[in-house]
Design a protein that fits this description.
- The protein is of the alpha/beta class and 436 residues long.
- Helix content is 54%, strand content 16%.
- It is built from 18 helices and 13 strands.
- The chain has helices spanning 4-19, 24-54, 63-77, 81-100, 108-113, 124-128, 148-156, 162-170, 206-211, 217-228, 256-265, 278-288, 299-311, 326-331, 343-348, 359-393, 398-401, 407-426; strands spanning 103-105, 119-123, 134-140, 183-187, 191-196, 199-204, 232-238, 241-249, 269-273, 292-294, 316-320, 334-338, 351-353.
- The strands form two sheets. Strands 1-13-12-11-2-9-10 form a seven-stranded mixed sheet, with helices on both faces.
- α3 (63-77) runs parallel beside α18 (407-426), α4 (81-100) runs parallel beside α18 (407-426) and α7 crosses α8.
Amino acid sequence: KYHDDTILANVIALVDEAQMGKAPIQRLVDRISAIFVPAVVICAILASLSWMFFSEGYGDYNSTELAIMVLVSTLVIACPCALGLATPTALMVGTGVGAQYGLLIKGIDALQKSYKTNTLILDKTGTLTIGKPSVTNVKIVNAEADNPLMIAASLETGSTHPIAGAISKAYSKDSEQLIIFDKVENIGGMGLLGYLDGKEYAVGNQALMERKGVIVSDTIQDLKEILTNGTTVVFVSKDQKLIGWIEMEDRLRETTNLAISKAKNLGLEVIMLTGDRIETASTISKEVGITRFEAESKPDEKAAFVKKLQQEGSTVAMIGDGVNDAAALAIADVGIAMGAGSDIALEAADIVLLRDDLLDVVSTLELGRATMRKIRGNLGWAFVYNLVGIPLAMGALITSTGWLLPPAFAAGAMALSSVSVVFNSLTLKSWKPHRA
Ligand code: ADP
Ligand code: MG
């Protein structure tokens, strides 16, 4: 059920779904425009007709001249250029300035949703930590069997998981000493299985061992202490027998603690989500100041967790790096991938942090907020301008003051409003992530 290709297929479907959308606010603007344009045309015609038939003209103009002027001015001033420019220009400048600081924004939707984000979910391995664990100890249980490190390294040759890197590095003898299996199976979020000469080999966590009928609960009792120190342990088995385990440690990223405290200051609820054991998860989360965490989550459970929070009404930003995070990244309102992450994670995310710096998560959310403020400012401008301009053009002030917006002025005002919206968007160029 957890084969890589099924996960891949799911992820591809999710990414497709996510990428179909426009920015929601743009859809709203489109909907408004769709009503606004015909409404203004009708207003312009009605105003023009009523000046034509129910007035004697005004000042130098006869009623027909007046009607034509009103018609032209109203149509010109109501041209929804500023309204149309408000969103795309701000988004363009926003994504551009983001790229300048290594925040690669792929999903426009996400930039907008970062405005509403109230929950930040972080993966552990490769996100909070550097994702390059190193092996600290190898324990051999069954001295008669093959060397567990050799078996693990052989199984992991095709894997891109950080654990695979650590094991291969620790066992860096020449490849002739690796076993070539007939078949290797990747069980997402659990580990790997290999088959050779009718024997079954496995490397992975407790869940995988139990699935294979290997009892490790006693071992885990003995390992409680190192597990609570934040060490990750993977077991190695051959033919349903434990032959050893490998202990490894990963380092936190330099900016992890700061990034988390900044995220909290932004008012976000911060949650850690990991496939690793509960003891390890608990230690790491305490170390970085996260109070809520979910451990031993398989890839589909990570996605389900995000969905659950969304159903509870949260807007969720999820940040991760692995194949195991991809589905969750795709489902999250704002999916953020570490630049060094796996290809599928980068593909599934809306935003990629090219600098692999966790502080950039906070920057991204702030950029999203700044961009949305711009869009709202722009729309406000465009709206006020129409609200004032259209009645003037329709001749609202003629009878009281004798003043009518001439078509040339209407055209000038329309151009000016577009220019001011573009200019307002351009000021976003000066945005800077504020660092520590
Ligand atoms: P994380 O959320 O910490 O990035 P994963 O979901 O990728 O973790 O994996 C969860 C657990 O499954 C790991 O802690 C490890 O015990 C086991 N596991 C996953 N992939 C592998 C692998 N390639 N080799 C060994 N163990 C693995
Ligand atoms: Mg990870």
